Amino acid sequence: MKNLRTLLIVGGGLMVSVAALFLALQLLEGDKSFRGSMIEPSPPAVDFQLSQADGTPLKLSEQKGRVVLIFFGYANCPDVCPTTMAEYKRIHSQLGDEASQVDFVFITVDPNRDTPEAIGEFVHAFDPSFIGLTGSMEELLPVWQGYWVGRQEPAHEASALDYEVNHVAYIYVVDKEGRLRLFFPYGQTAEDMTHDIRVLLAE
Amino acid sequence: MKKSEIRLYINRFLLILGLSIAAVWLVSELGILLQQDENTARAPMMVEFVIPAGTAAKVEAGEAAPSIPDDLTFVLGDVLVVRNDDAVAHTFGPLLVPPGTSASMPLNEADHFSFACSFTPSRFIGLNVKSPTTVTTRFLGIAFAAPPTAVMIYVYSLIVFPFKPQAESGAVPSKSGS
Hints:
heterodimer; A: alpha+beta; Glutaredoxin; two-stranded antiparallel sheet; 5 helices; B: alpha/beta; Immunoglobulin-like; 2 domains; three-stranded mixed beta sheet
């Protein structure tokens, strides 16, 4: 009887210890699965060099070691682009100090109106660290093609300023190695995106 | 009120509670049978679709695209995987799938979504993400629905079939109508 009691105490203690160890490992490991759309195998992100608001060029391949978020839009966009920039701002805020390891990039799909000054004014209204990129049609076309950016601009006079451009609404995520790892579809929560960026920063 | 009277009230409630559990369980089973084609009575799993090579060319030429229904039902927690064997990028629901890659995404929000799709005839696809119908959810459904049902019927029964007031001699009250 005494042996049985000892056995039960030892067995129970062992089970509780194993459960506690498992729980501790789970907590330490954290949730490393992505919540965005993961691409496998991850292709190398197509390199580009475009002008920032102050005229200095930004080359993607020089950003290795940093996580780069890329969104394609335009400054006169009435809905999706400002909403996405607001999400950028929320992610930036949620990341805290880690935001310094992330580039928040906005590339124009409307070079006709998005001069470096115009795109700079647009992105900096959300955060001074956000990067607006523009260029000539010749510079931008290969970038759009390289990122499968569907873009439709209605027929308009060259001088027209009041028109809308249809475009994709994904946020592209380039990891520290320069690989295209994730897409965030429009509507993905800032919390989910922040989680995934943290996973990439921890790699 | 005497103990014998209280026992009568309790017995009636227990009987009604038992019948309510049975009735709610029956309704639950019928509901599950009616939506069995949506197959949500399963654990979350990986659901894969393949975009065959040449799909974009076929769509361009007006030929039949891969036969995928315009509305798909998933269980919350499913992982949607789309493999693109075509030479061009495709959009499929929330996924943008570069050529020669697979895109995957967990479906963590129960809702009905409508997305663009680059190869369905309508160019749109609906994703219906539902909470899985597991043994636990079925049990919880019964546990939440049966007690209020029982209380409602019990109150109704007390109004329609009240116990007769107990005689002064101390005899056990009898049910009305009996």
